Amino acid sequence: MQLTKAYNHQDVESKWYTFWVNSGFFEPARDVDRYFSIVIPPPNVTGSLHMGHALNNTLQDILCRYKRMDGFSVLWVPGTDHAGIATQNVVERQLAQRGVSRAELGREKFIERVWQWKQEAGNTILHQLKALGVSCDWSHERFTMDEGLSRAVREAFVKLWEDKLLYRAERLINWCPRCKTALADIEVLHEEADGNLWYIRYPLDDDPSQGLVVATTRPETMLGDTAVAVHPEDGRYRHLIGKKFRLPITGRIVPLIADPFVDRQFGTGALKITPGHDFNDFEIGERFALDRISIFDADARIDPAAFLNRGEGGEWIQRYGGKDRVEARKLLIAELKEKGFLEKTEAHKLAIGRCYRCQTPIEPYLTPQWFVDIKPLAEPALRAVQNNDIRIVPEGWRNSYFAWMENIKDWCISRQIWWGHQIPAWYCKACDSESLIAAADGDYILSRDARPIVARQAPERCPTCGGAELVQDPDVLDTWFSSALWPFSTLGWPNDTEDLKTYYPTSTLVTGFDILFFWVARMIMMGLKFRNDVPFHDVYIHALVRDEQGQKMSKSKGNVIDPLDVMKEYGTDAFRFTLAAMAAMGRDIKLAEDRISGYQNFVNKLWNAARFVQMNIADQAVGDSETVLNTENLGFAERWIRSRLARVVLEARESIDAYRFNDYANTLYQFTWHEFCDWYIEMSKLALTSSDASEASQSRKLLQELLDQLLLSLHPIMPFVTEEIWQTLGENRPSIMIQRYPTVQPNWIDEETEKNMTFLMDVIRAIRNLRTEMNCPPGKQVAVIFCGADPELKFLQEQESYLRVLARVGSAAYQDGGDRPKGAATAVVGPLEVYLPLEDLVNLAEERARLSKEVSKVEDELARVQKKLANGDFIAKARAEVIQKEKEKAVQFEEKIRALRSSLEKIEQLQAEGVS
Predict the structure, then answer these.
(1) pTM of this structure
(2) In terms of pLDDT, which residue wins out, 833 or 847?
(3) Three-state SS letters, 369-389
């Protein structure tokens, strides 16, 4: 079978992927004793393939294919995450289009609807990952809410409860009024925004003519103030400490307390204290036993019950009740101003926290939640990285990990949504009758005093009173709770399975830095807790994929590159190679489609090289991939390419073992294109056309073996094209996927031959450059005179046949002394001087005229660009990328002018020497 003239990826990719899956090549080998395991960071079931997924899974696949070829039993576990909030939002939006709300549907019917959606659309991203060529073991596919993982979640929750590492308490948490659920600290996105600082006067209770002024960015929360605080060493207020102040609007009496937390430089140095709506105020309130008033309801609207339940009255409650926080602020500012309590307003920069899912500003909200007592889990997880039981690559991320773990706070794991793992805790209607309040959506609202019955299975009766009416906690667990168990729950835990014994701990985790704390740290804590061992040995953290200007890709900016579109146009191999070649440690990828197009050219270059090899080995049987290169009687070019191949294999192995994916890709790129294709294939043509049959036969064999080694080296990064070439060149050969990755013999490396080849290439390049500078026609042969020492001249004489083919040298003279040639173009290569006599080569007068005309033309182009860049209107109105392109044009024109003038000077010098 012949390779087609051009490579068509669309004819190849699905064919080979189906073949690999059906052949079971993605499943772990059972007859080896070295193991490599990796778990996919489970994408959300709501997701579709984006650049982050493409990079992450390409790098994982490179590792898995490489390790498989290197003799390891490889298990790569795929799967998806149920993505509680995100998935619920998707289904709620679908229902809303039909005019149905979640509450109207009810919990049971709603969850059925989500499962239905999951079956219809939830595996889209896994199908897209298959298009990327990932070699996951699909027989091990898992879902965070499948039966086995759900059991693991219940087991983990119950064990944490039994070990007193779980508790339920009323705490101030991050609340999303849109999603109506609690959020962990790391699920809150912080951004700087323009705001205001309002200065409000609080009158003294016993002398309203006196008072103090507080500064606040959130005046509406003053409705929940229960104190004012100053620094104990602030002399401005020391005499007022202990005094009572009357809140404007509400008339509530609050004390002035002293706490060292207060920043004397902020505002007036007097701080309003709202324990129910500010995390710092909550801590101060705990120290001083202050009342906590939660003034908002779950929709972030003023809740009249918050005041009425305290026995507070007044028409202000009716005025503000039901107003959302923005509306309440406007109303309050107007009233404060009208009544003379607002002293002044200043512009102020402030940090706003937003929900990571819907971008709604979060609200600190006082509510009962479930928490993990995290410190006992964090300490061993911290030591695991400090002691290098887990290696984080690049190492710079270790410090970020340490800083977060050393300052970690208890983890709020309950969420007020329906889709997810419902918390395995029940409440007795008889024992907790006052703590259970029926909600409109059919669930129950639980007070902070409710007493949970935690169990692996639903209890039939209350262990206290024997009652049979039990209500399950309506909350579900944070999605990241089940994800934290992923490395061992996917292997069968809590059962002690063979997979768990064999593949845990996993070998490597490949992930983005954005989930180092969301996910990685929690997996480490849970792995150490439940398996008494780390979940993985290495964590490789890759960077972000940005657009070519370094901007984050987003639909709003219109700069999103769709991986599926790219793969369809340029081929998956070209796309994968681009990602790997640009994946330098700690450096974001600036992706442009022309880079992908460039690597598509590389795929085509490999294809054409394979066609050349096939044409020349057509009459020779294809050898086994394991055949060792023949080391007897090799010529100069053959010794060189074998030595370079040996170095490249060693460098490729070293790079991939160290997660230097860009070095791995670029090493193979440089060798394939610039050494094997550009030099060796051209040099081999001499041997292939030799009248010596044994020399031609040896050259064909070596070409075939070199190409095989190249295909094997490139397969982890470019699986499709390498399989197509492999199978076509060797009909009925076993798949390239199950071949051994190349190894080399130390004696293949030949320092002397590589040094000599470098010298020969420099000489050939020097001749080519002189030909170009003199505008010598490409097909015209030239005479060359070499002047230098005897060793260099002798070497060049031995390799003269390559000079004739690769530099179009018609005749060569060698001299180790005497006068240097006159009227010749000259170049120096190390100790060697190279001369090209110009007689009959070019007409110097015509060439001088041509160069002068070209210089003038390019100078005109440069002047036009410089004029544009000097135009203030153009600079002010043009996009940054347009301006940058004009600057690049100017640089290119300047470089071209310099090169032309250099050639012109050489012509003028030769004319001065009397050459015509």
Answers:
(1) 0.86
(2) 833
(3) EEEECCHHHHHHHHHHHHCCC
**pLDDT tens-digit map of 410-426:** 999 999 999 999 999 99
Q: Check pLDDT > 60 for residue 600.
A: yes
The predicted structure's pLDDT at residue 623: 43
For the chain, percent of residues with pLDDT exceeding 90: 71
Q: Are 436 and 425 in contact (CB under 8 A)?
A: no
Q: Count other Cβ atoms within 10 Å, centred on residue 314.
A: 12
Amino acid at 16: W
Count the Cβ atoms, other than its own, within 10 Å of residue 118.
Answer: 19
Helix spans in 682-744 (H): 682-688, 693-714, 719-729
Token pair for 583: 């994946």
Q: Mapping DSSP to helix (H, G, I), strand (E, B) and coil, where does residue 192 land?
A: strand
3-state secondary structure of 512: strand
pLDDT, residue 346, reads 95
- CB–CB of 578/596 below 8 Å? yes
Question: Got the DSSP string for 547-597?
Answer: ETTSPBP-TTTT-PPPHHHHHHHH-HHHHHHHHHHT--TT--EEE-HHHHH
Cα–Cα–Cα angle for 842, 844, 846, nearest 5°? 90
| Mean local confidence (pLDDT), 6-10 | 95
Q: Give 124-184 as a DSSP string.
A: HHHHHHHHTT----GGG-EETTSHHHHHHHHHHHHHHHHTT-EEEEEEEEEEETTTTEEE-
Cβ atoms 493, 26 nearer than 8 A: no
Mean pLDDT to the nearest integer, 152-179: 95
- What per-residue confidence (pLDDT) applies to 380? 98
Q: How far is CA 902 from the centre of its chain?
A: 46
What is the Cα 839 distance to its own chain's centre?
Answer: 60
* Contact between residue 647 and residue 676 where contact means Cβ atoms under 8 Å apart: no
Q: Which of 583-587, 589-593, 910-914 has the lowest mean pLDDT?
A: 910-914
Query: CA of 887: how far to CAs of 591, 778, 890, in Å?
Result: 21, 33, 5
Query: Can you give the three-state secondary structure of 811-854, one letter per residue?
Result: EEEEECCCCCCCCEEEEEECCEEEEEECCCCCCHHHHHHHHHHH
- Mapped onto helix, strand or coil, the DSSP state of residue 907 is helix
Average of pLDDT values for 842-857? Answer: 77
Neighbours of 799 (CB within 10 A): 20
Distance between CA atoms of residues 362 and 353, nearest Å: 6
Instruction: Find where tokens 């699905």 sit.
Output: 14
Q: What is the mean pLDDT of the chain?
A: 91
Q: Taking residues 485-489, what's their average pLDDT?
A: 98
Q: What type of residue sits at position 808?
A: R
The predicted model gives 887-916 an average pLDDT of 79
Report angle CA 827, 832, 835 to the nearest 5 degrees.
40
Q: Which residues of 568-599 are buried (b: 16+ CB within 10 A; e: fewer)?
A: eebbbbbbbbbbbbbbebeeebebeeebbeeb
Q: What is the mean pLDDT of residues 187-195?
A: 90
Distances (CA, A) of 152 to 84, 156, 319, 697: 17, 6, 50, 63
- Is the pLDDT at 621 greater than 60? The verdict is no
Cα dihedral across residues 283, 289, 295, 299: positive or negative: positive
Helices then strands, counting H and E runs in the chain, come out as 31, 31
